[in-house]
Amino acid sequence: MHPCRVLFICTGNSARSILSEATLNRLGKGRFEAFSAGSQPTGKVNPYAIQQLTAAGIPIDNLASKSWDRFVGDDAPPLDIVITVCDSAAREPCPVLFGYFVRSHWGLPDPAGVQGDPATIAAAFEHAHALITVRLMALLDLPVETLSRNELKQALDHIGTITDAEEEHV
After folding, report:
1. Largest Cα–Cα distance of the chain, in whole Å?
2. Is the pLDDT of residue 5 over 80?
3. In which element (H, E) is residue 27 found?
4. Which residue, 10, 31, 102, 138, has most beta carbons within 10 Å?
């Protein structure tokens, strides 16, 4: 399993899943290859997500809001892990994704739904990204190459319960 291919799914694929994809691609340094998609993509990446990634020094090249349809069919990349990052996506019927992958849910508050002045919205994106980063660091600490599917599923589900960006790595 090298690189470990992870798909982050959300409804709009404009914020949480994009933050997760870009951050894992940066932190995973070739050990992981991350993608993101949405069940109802907005068609554009939220500008606050771009702002947050840029502030964190994470490349934003090639980020786009796209449909999960891209990950079904013969041309789809093989996936090892599929993670839903919003409650809406977890309750929606998923597409038929062929392959031998582990599925988990990492619910995250939606920073794109925050109302207020630009500083308040930016703070919501910063908080969401901090939580995503803590969870991804916990993922990076896992020996994904040697875990059984059941062990990986249990570990991923546990990571999804981390709710504090200050929490220690799992």
Report:
1. 46
2. yes
3. helix 16-28
4. 10
